[in-house]
Design a protein that fits this description.
By secondary structure, the protein is of the alpha/beta class. The protein is 29% helix and 13% strand. The protein has eight helices and seven strands. β4, α3 and β5 form a beta-alpha-beta unit. α2 crosses α3. The two termini are 21 Å apart.
């Protein structure tokens, strides 16, 4: 059944944008607002009505680090984070769940997708399905390379870094540093670590689907340890067998974890703004 015709899909309003997201994707667990599947960063409203941007967190699990894009993107663009849930076990399972949420929030395109690491592979799969349905999609991947080893799970000392917080990775310190915008408990952190391990594992052995149209990839110019990468262009070559159109790569002076850091987000926003929407071009 086409997700547009799904009777379980629900409407939304600016003051209650995620009223059914927890039930529709992860009814098994009563989640806090911090870890709900849909994070409304700048939800649709009367004056925020452009092509919505959906930001996929990957093994980072939380999408709060994307909130910095608000200051750098067109104010008419709605922004939502898509965070990890316990149910999916494969990239395609995640894509199916996220696609249902995307269609619920925006039944028709155009759409924008931004995915980091494991979330990049999910964004690619979501774009495949949307373009196959005739939708226009702008898709930008961060640190997602089909030829690279599977990413490492989220270690405790990376939680704060990926959230853009310069502090120890414990719940009290993170909440204090986030100035009340995030409410994470110790139980949440344990849950996030388990979800991260699942998200990292699902990349291993995944073979991307054939993507109609074009793809843009943002490539970390430095390895996790900080040294320059010897061949950043290999990421573009790695994606070409899975993309019908052009694969455009942007090499950024950052490590994989730094691609969503506050000082790099302005460049990510610029790349999003200059990447054309693309649709299916084959029959």
């Amino acid at each position: 059944m086409n997700s547009r015709d799904d009777p379980s899909a629900c409407g939304w309003t600016a003051d209650q944008p995620d009223s059914c997201s927890a039930d529709s994707v992860e009814a098994e667990r009563a989640e806090s607002a911090a870890t709900a599947v849909v994070l409304p960063i700048r939800p649709h409203s009367t004056y925020v009505d452009g092509a919505p941007l959906f930001c996929l967190a990957g093994e980072a699990i939380l999408a709060w680090n994307y909130a910095g894009l608000v200051a750098h993107l067109d104010p008419r663009v709605p922004i939502y984070g898509l965070q990890a849930s316990a149910r999916p076990r494969t990239i395609r399972d995640y894509a199916a769940g996220y696609l249902a949420e995307i269609r619920r929030l925006a039944p028709h395109g155009p759409y924008q997708l931004l995915g980091w690491s494991a979330g990049g592979f999910v964004a690619h799969e979501v774009a495949v399905r949307l373009r196959a349905a005739g939708e226009q999609v702008r898709v930008v991947l961060l640190a997602a390379d089909p030829e690279a080893p599977a990413p490492a799970p989220l270690a405790a000392d990376r939680v704060a870094t990926l959230l853009g917080v310069d502090t120890a990775a414990d719940a009290t310190a993170i909440n204090a540093a986030m100035a009340g915008t995030l409410d994470v408990t110790g139980e949440d952190l344990d849950h996030l670590a388990a979800l991260s391990a699942t998200a990292a594992r699902m990349v291993s052995g995944h073979r991307p689907s054939w993507l109609p149209g074009d793809l843009t990839v943002c490539i970390p110019g430095r390895a996790p340890g900080g040294a320059d990468r010897l061949d950043p262009g290999a990421t573009v070559r790695g994606w070409r067998p899975y993309v019908e159109g052009a694969v455009t790569g942007f090499v950024l002076d950052a490590t994989p974890d730094e691609l969503t850091a506050p000082d790099v987000l302005p460049e990510i926003a610029r790349i999003l703004a200059t990447t054309p929407l693309s649709a299916r071009t084959t029959c």
